[in-house]
Amino acid sequence: MKRWRALIVLGTAQFLMVLDTSVMNVSISTLVEDFRTEVTAIQAVITLYTLIMAAFMITGGKLGDAFGRRRAFAVGLVVYGVGSALTSLAPSLWVLALGWSVIEGLGATLVLPALAALVAGAYRGRERAVAYGVIGGLAGAGIAVGPLLGGWVTTYLTWRLVFAGEVVLVIAMLCVLRWIPDVPREPRTPLDKGGVVLSAAGLALVVLGVLQSSSWGWLKPRNPPFTVLGFSPTVFVIAAGGVVLWLFCSWERRQSARGREPLVRLSLFALPPLRSGLTMLLCQNLVLLGLFFIIPLYLQVVQGLDAFQTGLRLLPVSVTMLLSAMAGPLLGRIAAPRTVVRSGLLVLVVAAVWLLATIEPEIDSLSFGLAMAVLGLGMGLLASQLGNVVQSSVGEAERSEVGGLQYSAQNLGSSLGTALIGSLLIGALVHAFTTQIEGNPKVSDAARQQAGITMEAGVSFVGTDQVRTAAERAALPPSEVDAIVDSYAAAQLDALKAAVLAAAAVTLGAFPFTRRLPAERLSREAGR
Known about the structure:
The chain has helices at about 5-25, 30-35, 40-65, 70-90, 95-120, 125-155, 160-175, 195-215, 235-255, 270-300, 305-325, 330-335, 335-360, 365-390, 400-440, 445-455, 465-475, 480-510. The chain is mainly α.
């Protein structure tokens, strides 16, 4: 038991790092009400949290190399605890964003790369595979248990207690930090500040463009702060991000050519298993966080469930994801990582199709629960393999750097998942609602024009009660109010189904990237 003490601390940290996002997702309606804002504002806060981690995760890994992984882990926990404390007391949305998205996000950028290296340093061979399976399972459990825990606390107490509880957990982990064997630090080299700025700016522009596409429009301007040649700035902002990322790659090659330590050794991407593993981690988190953004909206906004009831509906994901992720070492004895990952993708496609069938005005609790269980099974199969594949593709000296790349890919996927799937949801809602009222003879031309003006001004995913109230304030006849509300309710379901289809499309699109995953079982000594 003593040899697993380190895993208890590291696993708790992993659970804590991913718990927040799932708590936020299930508390969206409450946060909107508490801070008197809109769903899109909370979506931006959630996206900013994962974006901060994606942008600075590699930097955090480099700092861990220079100052020691256990020390970086400890400092990151302290920063994270400070952010949690501030979040628990946040009086306004911008303080919430500062405490949660920025400070907690920066703390996580120190904790997670160090965590990956510390796991690799504490365990070898089969024990390492078990450790990564547990870490992957706890990551999934954090994402899925968060709705239940956060839902209960949000409904019966206050969401702020979750973050206060995180402070207590951080203090407890700091007290038993010596349970974790340290990993020797690397020779200290100057930090590639140019690489830090360029990578962060490039990623920020790409995610910002995707996030704002729901309010700015993709090509036709909807409600942008400015236009470019008469077009929405969305595509141009994303393209600018792509250019900055290209400059980042050029800068890194120049750093290497001059004999300086780059932020990222681009030569690592020449390793096929690493490249495929990172791509799959990005796709996995894009799908998971995208679905975990829209499913609570369906349960809370459409079905009218509270946060705790929402958490209960998501519990099957937690159970099956944890079990299938922790079965990774057993699966590794009978099947290659490529086979397990492809099986997981197929299960995810089945889960998406099943979920489509359950998104109806009246929810079938049994069918929905089974769909969630299948979703967790697929995600767990991916989580059981990808961490070990990524870390086993390099030697001991590159573990921390690859850990930074690993969590950067995961959090970039999370950012894009929340931003892209959320954006598609809003875009599909606008299109479906416009189509519904245009084809409804009970809606007058004046009402259609008024609805069009409202859509151009920006739209959020709100309940039908709010739509009814807005229609009544516009002094529309009762028959037209009912017709508009019915059209909006139908548009909500169409938009949710379109978002789930988008997640399924990403899952199918990930299949070609599995080609370079290991086709043979990882040996007992893999990654030694």
